[in-house]
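SEVERITY: medium
COMPONENT: batch folding queue
REPORTER: lab tech (J.R.)

DESCRIPTION
The queue accepted two submissions in a row. Attaching both inputs and their returned structure tokens so the on-call engineer can compare them side by side.

ATTACHMENT 1
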Amino acid sequence: MTRMAGDRRGAANAATVLRTVLEHGPVARSGISELCGLSPASVSRQTTGLVRAGLLRELPEPGGRPSSGRPRIPLDLHTGAVGGPVTAGLHIGVPSSTFSLVDLRGRILARRGFPHPDPTDPALPLRIAGELARFLREFDTGRPLLGVGAALGGWVRPDTGVVVRHPALGWRDRPLAAELSGALGLPVHLDNHARAVAGAEVLFGHPAARRSLVHLFIGNVVDAAFGIEGAVHQGPDSAAGDVAHLPVPGSRTACACGRTGCLQATASDIALGAEAVRRGIVPDPSVPLLVDAAATGDPRADRLLRERARAVGRAAALLLDVFNPAVMIVTELSSLLHEGYLDEIRAAAVAQSHVCRDPERIIAPHAGPAVLPEAAATVLLGPLFQDPAAVASGGSTAGP
């Protein structure tokens, strides 16, 4: 049904109230009005609706007893164990998927990994959906389930739920959101994982990310995302963020595209794992194995990870020079686990950049190693904070 202008205004006001409580809660209704600029009557109307929808809850007054005069009952997001809505998160990687349950503040309540028996299996989405359904049944406590936020690498169109291109999984023009939703019986929101992480930073992370950010994702797939004034850029056909062939200054690594020095060929987990095997550091092309080897004192592993970090930093410098964001987030496994590798990225970026002289602008995701489970759920939570009624009305009261 088409919304009338008043409905759109109401949706915008509800979103403003919900985001104000996210940022400042617990907060009284009068405080919400002062913080967001809406009239007390509008705030009262919207908070009443959001409480009824189960997204906000009233908390006991400070001191445990009513105060004299008009009560200032604090409101907060409904994250309580009884009745607080949750979102399922699904991150689909190449070797495995990760499932999560996340509350309205992005806090992870449960998580589990699912290794892919065969990443090229055409039936992989159905296998993933079956395992996710089992996960949701196991952790079903009766809390309302809003749906599933799903994220993966490659070219994804969130408006249609279609994976346009994911070479590592062999997917092209695949209606993944519809497949998953049909198998699970739940609403599924889909997006690229670099944009999902950027969205999580805007909602739950560093305050500067709401002004402007660049996110660089280094995994089996290399992606980027860009945001300004709280909005993550999609671009025509949602194709923004393809940096696989961004040149890495100083790299001579051959790329399948016929050029040398491309970021994907130089610094991806696939390239790093293959190089680790070639040097005899690990028996299998696994970056987690390489990180473990470095943590146990293998100097060859540490040296290779630092080489990768410097290459990432040189590529990051190009993005810093183009966008000059308030903050740059880098998702890369070794730097998530050990800050010394993040320092290598920072040093290389500042040395290469023509505009960035502040290495502290380059940060790891606020969620640390839990970045992907949180970001996947944010694919649904982001729209919720933009239009609470539209998303909340599509949820379920039980697991599948």
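ATTACHMENT 2
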Amino acid sequence: MKSLPNILTSLRLVMALFMFVALAAASGAVPYLSANLTPEAQFALQRWAVYAFVLAAITDYFDGWLARKLDAMSMWGAILDPIGDKVLVCGAILGLMSLGPQPMVLLPAGLILFREFTVSALREVGAAKGVKLPVTRLAKWKTALQMVALTAQLVVAAWGAFGLTDEPSIRGPATVTADVLFWLAAIVTLITGAQYWEQTRKALKGL
């Protein structure tokens, strides 16, 4: 039972990979496979990619909860969990971009990717110096907000795959809501990135 949290984290990585490949294939980016896909198959891949993302996002909560509940906190889990989060978020952003032009999403998407890679580099540099960067409460909320915002963006981008109406009075507000959530996620992401930067700077300065 104590291995269950790590299994869920590993499954998140697998689902993140599936989601990205499915979105890439649906957009025509996978050689040989994409060329033989019918429109129905493309829509099916988009739907399953969104389902995989949502399921993977849910495991992000349950693996940590189970680790605490089962007293199964481990070094391997501590390494895999943030990797799983970043792979899922970055894969979803790249997959989202593959579905077509997303003008309102491009800037916040780039800012989120910039922050994620920067914090990963900070953690690597800090670890080499014996400096640990604990996950803050705001960073946990940041991850949850990213998951919600990306789910909304993926649904809007794959709107036709879900058979949703193109009525402007429905799709318009849905798009605006998804964009606002994504921009909010980007802002909170940058704030947490600045916090980690300051933590690292102070820690390295004290060495």
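NOTES FROM REPORTER
The chain has one domain: 4-205.
No errors were logged for either attachment.
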